[in-house]
Sequence to fold (58 residues):
Amino acid sequence: MSLSKLSGLSLVCALVFGLSACAPEVGSEAWCKQMKEKPSGDWTANEATDYAKHCVFK
Fold:
């Protein structure tokens, strides 16, 4: 693998890990608020299940 490809891959990995660290923990008050503001048509099946479990049926 060339050095430029390796550098690009490292940059992408760093960005992915950096962005995922900013997301609130599933089930937290911040996560419930974030999901409430997100259009329900954009929710995944897992998000809908987690929302019901952690935010509706506490």
